[in-house]
TrEMBL record:
InterPro entries, alphabetized: DUF2955
One Pfam entry name: DUF2955
UniProt keywords, alphabetically: Membrane, Transmembrane, Transmembrane helix
Coiled-coil boundaries: none
Protein name: Protein of uncharacterized function (DUF2955)
Spans traversing the lipid bilayer: 47-65, 85-106, 118-136, 148-168
Source organism, top-level taxon: Bacteria
Length: 180
């Protein structure tokens, strides 16, 4: 299957930069999103947004998969759950203090994103924190279900990423093969 006709349609200039690795990554993202949406729909989970966004985010932000990526992703979700319980549970009585603490966490996360090795930790924290704060602002939200859905979706995203990187590996070019 050739991607050249499609690349010519979507590239306004003659320099086509959509490589075979890009195509494989696009397929991994699409398959993971479809599987995650199917699972969340089949089980009718209350917070399906986590199940769809996390695999898409993990596969699109990081072109490789290794233990460091998996640890950062799961650790960030766990830390965010603890932070949200502490922030909303203890500081919701004082909105100004809560806003300052949340702002400080966003500053810290954007600082992580500006540093290379902790980019995924920061970006996952921004997405998770904003989504969970939004859901937790409603009085009828069951926090246990929210936290469990967040962690379950995170583990599923890591598993899908590992599986799809195994089933649809990236192409090794001659220069990349020489580096090994």
């Amino acid at each position: 299957m050739s991607i050249n006709p499609l690349a010519h349609v979507f590239t306004p200039h003659g320099n086509i930069v959509y490589t075979a690795n890009d195509f494989r990554q696009t397929v991994r993202i699409s398959v993971a999103g479809t599987i995650a949406l199917s699972i969340s729909t089949f089980y009718n989970v209350q917070y399906g947004v986590f199940f769809v966004v996390y695999p898409l985010m993990l596969l699109s932000l990081v072109p490789v998969f290794n233990r460091h990526v998996a640890r950062q992703f799961v650790f960030s979700a766990a830390v965010n759950c603890v932070e949200m319980v502490l922030i909303v549970g203890y500081l919701s009585q004082w909105p100004v203090i809560m806003t300052l603490v949340v702002f400080g966490l966003y500053v810290m996360r954007f600082r992580f994103m500006s540093k290379g090795p902790l980019f995924l930790l920061g970006s996952m924290g921004v997405v998770c924190q904003s989504t969970m704060l939004n859901f937790m602002s409603y009085p009828g939200t069951n926090w246990h279900t929210l936290m469990f859905s967040n962690m379950e979706a995170c583990v599923m995203a890591v598993a899908l990423s590992a599986l799809l990187h195994y089933l649809i590996p990236g192409c090794r070019t001659a220069s990349a093969a020489a580096a090994y």
